[in-house]
Predict the 3D structure of the following.
Amino acid sequence: MSDRRSANVTGNATGRKPLNLSNAATQGGAAVRSAKLPAGLLCTDALPDDLIEVGYVGAAYGIRGWIKVQPHADDASALLHARRWWLLPAPPAGRLAAPASPSEAVSVKIAQSREHSGTVVAQATGVSERNVAEMLKGRRVWIRREDFPAPEENEFYWVDLIGCAVVNEQGEALGEVTGLIDNGAHQILEVAYQLPDGKAAERLIPFVDAYLRSVDISARRIVVDWGLDF
């Protein structure tokens, strides 16, 4: 059994890893957004309720309609595994959630994809010309949580840890996971709780073997060796 407990980053919607999008992601699509996309690419069904943002379209790639995607995570396995992507316009500044309406959403079936110099390049069915690929620049890439590859033993997706209750070995409630921080050496759980006077507070608990005792995703429960007064 592996001792590694890695919270693989897969997305950032609603309390997940904060976005640090380049200007290309937020402004690059503005110049082409006014161009009209082929009707066949537009999503006509309701958006799935388990969509997770995993990257953004940084540019067109080549002359045959391929797109280049900048993943939010170092591990692009979720992008490469999913065969359907939803490409949504970047929301206004300060708003992180996916839109509730599919009116501007593009849904594409991915014919082929591969890693390329820190990005993922992909060919979407129905996109065969560079000018159409350029219209997609700046859109954020969302995939369904059910399309993620299964994590390795003792590995967890960050999105699955959000909302989990955290307790210590004495059964004392420490709070609820609201986010995770990657400091380069390891991950840290951001655990929100309430002070006796009702004010909100936060605990930062390293997500490492020294403190971690168990993670039960189905029960939404994490047990750690951590005191109430830490």
Notes: Residues 130-135 form the longest helix (6 residues).
